[in-house]
Amino acid sequence: MTDRPPILVPIRVLEGESVPEGVPDLLANAHVVLLGYHVIPEQTAPGQAQMQFEERATNRLDEYEAIFEEAGATVERRLVFTHDGQKTVDRTIREHDCLAALVPNATGPVEDVLVAIRGAVGIDRLARVVAGLFGGTDASVTLYHVAEPNETDADAETLLDGLADRLEDQGVDASRIETRVDRDQAALDAIVGAADAFDTVVMGETDPSLSTFVFGMPADQVADRFLGPVLVVQREPPEETEE
Amino acid sequence: MAEQPVDVEPVGQNVAGEKPAAEPDAVTDDTTVHDDDVELERTIGLVGGLAIGIGTMIGAGIFVFPGLAADNAGLAATLSFAIGGVVALLVALPTSELATAMPRSGGGYYFISRGMGTAYGAIVGLGLWLGLMFASAFYLVGLGHYASAVFAELGVALPFSPVIGIGLLFGVALTALSIGGTENTAKIQNVVVGILLVVLTGFLSYGVLDAVGVFGGGSVPEQFFSRGYFPVLTTAALVFTSYLGFAQVATVAGEIKQPGRNLPLAMVGSVLVVTVFYVVTIFVATSAFGADRLGQFGETAMVEVARDFLGLPGAVAILGAGLLATFSSANASILSASRAVYALSRDALLPRRASEVNLRYGTPHVALLAAGGPILVLVATGQVELLAEVASFLHLIMYGLMCVALIVLRRRNPEWYSPSYRVPGYPVVPAVGALASFGLIAFMQPTSIGIGILVMLVSYLWYRYYAGDVTLKGDI
């Protein structure tokens, strides 16, 4: 069996967000990094919120942890009180070497997975996530690429086949892998359109800016319009720079 | 990752049976860690820290004091501000060391309660809370003066002085805003401080060039010690309120990223920046008008100075800057006061309820009201100099004791005390810092000293009554 890929599941634990239906099964083969966080205004010291809310938040996280473990995942958890949710999410991804972050939306049983690929960069991490999560299941995996105008069909196929080979190497049955290329569409619209027929989407971070927040632009839009869970594969963290 | 262990375990309980909250397990560059899996995120960077320090301080020294200081000490008021700056620096250095060793919310209160015990901690903590109220009230009265000057500028004649009314109004508005507002106030604070520094740099550069004669006659400064030597020191004591802000950085030490680096830089940096601005401001102001006339203009003297240099646009710019500066100082002080209440209630020196967080807005409404309410009473007195001196008194006690706490900690050298920044010139710097802090108090008006001592006495009695069993002192 392949290594369990570490996946971040960020939950605003005190604002009624919970683990959506279907997510525990989706992540049954993952190492779930369960991040319960609570964003507080600047007038409030984080410790102040902690004093008042820690118990309630911990109880909720206990529940969620149990749900994930019951589904088969290994779980590591954190509860963070913060002024800046984005910083907290970024830091947790970095500290726990998370391969991907989940935008938690509900789903049914996962039978069809859409893997959206932009380019060869980061394809290794993408493969580890897909193989790790779905290698041992019966889900069919569709590798999907929206070709650029100056990109030939052959280029696109090389890209997809490369990923398919990696997945096979890591234990995904070749019969379950399909490939699909579209063109003449805006990538985002194409992904959302294609995603309709699938239970979950795996995609890379598209925004090359410093902001790696999972709820940032492209993944956010996909998640908003797709309404199912989206796994956002994180870029390779930059080399640690010691001060 | 560099993790600092924290090994101070407070014990005991207060009258209501509440125990001090448990101390964290460790402090990292990004978080404070409790029980291994609960973290408090650090979100304020160096710029944010500097903005808190400078934003709190610059309102008073430039926009309220020049007239009053020149009236008291003549041109030598420049020296008074310089003395204040040196004292502040002597305290900021030891404070930096303490803050890097204990980067937790509560600042001076936290250091002293852990280094010297609960009784000192209670006096300083309650004193800090009240001191910040006096400071906020002082800024609000200053704000009232500026707002009134706006009316005067517009030619609106009011049958009464609107200073106190406006101060009260803004006091209520600020408290309400802090309770109900969830906007990104820190970003606004950064922008406000940036604007202020730009406006002031432009204005002061012009003023300095003018004073040395580039734009015409120049002005020969009058006799430096026109009021004698003694008023220089009493004025230094008065204007020390302009240097209270750096300790507010320590109040939010628990939220500063990379505390080992950013805390010392933010505290020492903000003191250096404002000292330069203050000294130049007074120099420019006194050379424009001479101390006598400047004194007659009172709290809004800077508006007249700007008018003298740059005409109406200058006056308007400084009026606007004055409003912004006093507003941001008052705001920062109210927020710090609420942090102080939280730190005290965490340690069971005040009821736990006092730091309760509002479910709707997520803000500490009890603590903010506990700060905002009394401020209104103080604003109503309208006594600028008294408010300023009492605020300074209560802070100076804390500053002096912080220096003492540093010496105590260094001598005992407990295992948990491992600051990443160490004060240069130990033990001379903290010793001189303590002496200077306590010494400055001696030059205050008797009324201010009386009120200050009363506050300390009441604080001590409250501790004996409410939390006599609580031990906060670190294992030293």
Structure summarized in a few sentences:
The complex is a heterodimer of chains A (243) and B (476). Chain A is of the alpha/beta class.
Give a written overview of the molecule.
- The complex is a heterodimer of chains A (243) and B (476).
- Chain A has 243 residues and is α/β, with parallel strands linked by helices.
- Chain A has 7 helices and 9 strands; from the N terminus they run E-H-E-H-E-H-E-E-H-E-H-E-H-E-H-E.
- Chain A has helices at 23-26, 46-71, 85-95, 123-134, 153-169, 187-195, 217-226, and strands at residues 6-12, 31-39, 74-82, 100-103, 112-117, 140-146, 177-182, 200-204, 230-233.
- In chain A, helix 4 (123-134) crosses helix 5.
- The longest helix of chain A is centred in the first third of the chain and has 26 residues, at 46-71.
- Chain B is mainly alpha-helical and 476 residues long.
- Chain B has one domain (4-467): Amino acid/polyamine transporter I (Up-down Bundle), CATH 1.20.1740.10.
- Chain B is 68% helix and 3% strand.
- The longest helix of chain B has 46 residues, at 301-346.
- Chain B is globular.
- The two termini of chain B are 27 Å apart.
- The model of chain B has no long low-confidence stretch (mean pLDDT 86).
- At the A-B interface, helix 2, strand 3 and helix 3 of A face strand 3, strand 4 and helix 12 of B.
